[in-house]
Design brief:
The chain has 349 residues and is of the alpha+beta class. It folds into four domains: 61 residues, no CATH class; 114 residues, no CATH class; 85 residues, no CATH class; 61 residues, no CATH class. The strands form five sheets. Strands 5, 6, 7, 8, 9 and 10 form a six-stranded mixed β-sheet that branches. The longest helix is centred in the N-terminal third of the chain and has 11 residues.
Length: 349
Amino acid sequence: MCYKETSNITERYTLIEELKTWTEAQQYCREHHTDLVSIRNASENEDLVKKAQGKPFWIGLFNETWKWSHQGDSYTFHNWDNGQPDNRGGDQNCVMMSKTGEWFDYDCNSQLAAFCCDGGSSGQCFYEGTGKTWQEAQSYCRKQGRDLPSIQDQAMVKKLIGLIPFLSLYNWYWIGLYRDKENWQWSSGGDVIYTNWEPYLFCASVNSEGEWEHLFCGQRNYFMCYSETSNITERYTLIEELKTWTEAQQYCREHHTDLVSIKSAIENEDLVKKAQGKRFWIGLFNEPWKWSHQGDSYTFHNWRNGEPNNWGGDEKCVAMSKTDGWNDYGCNNQLAFFCCEAQCLHPSL
């Protein structure tokens, strides 16, 4: 769906019935109209759905999570293979390049050869033929005063391919691109003030290798509390009791200061040593839940054990049982429901 900056409402939105990728659609709209459509409210969303007459269509909303390891290098050029990136399995957060130059998102813990470059994209590059995980490769390059490569044009792709030995044991190679935090934005550059979904609910833990893991908050783990104190040895305390993330947070706030926040790789390493191989909750969490009645704060909750777990990746609404609490549930299921006036929403009124 393209939009055009015009005072004529009937000409403002145009459904293009040609099959294109999102990037091709964006380019088409910018050449022939103004841009892919931005949607500012539910009413506008409804109007566009009517105009499409049952056809699915691209809009201008996209999520640019990719960043180069070498800080400051802009992600403008890309050379993804067809169908990539696809985040297969939900954990492909790093990028590898094939022998012919195409990019694929891939599990960061896989062991591959890599390149190290001076200045990310601006200096001399070297092939490193020993298999390493992405983080190990990044650390290896940085210890040399280099970094994994940033790629800004096709010439850089050819340059790297030229460094690969003819008898290389590897067909895939780490480059410096990785997936960072969510960053949804409109193609036109406008603010994202309306969306039609909620992100996943995650709580964070640290495993025995020092890697951070996303888990559903009802899982039970050990946890690490911190206390505001000048005595470093008393600052962090591993609590070897199995609790959910919420229970762990409550315990730390009652007996210490809070669940631990981790501000550096050194601090992360120190805490992993203190945990002695045990996985533990940290204070990082993502809270996407909101009440339909705008302005009501989400403080009380009554989740069933193990919920919410976003089963299948599409449980974005909440159902209540007769007996044992709340469950996140697919919004397209047909259930009975309640409607409330002010007295029902807030009994004290």
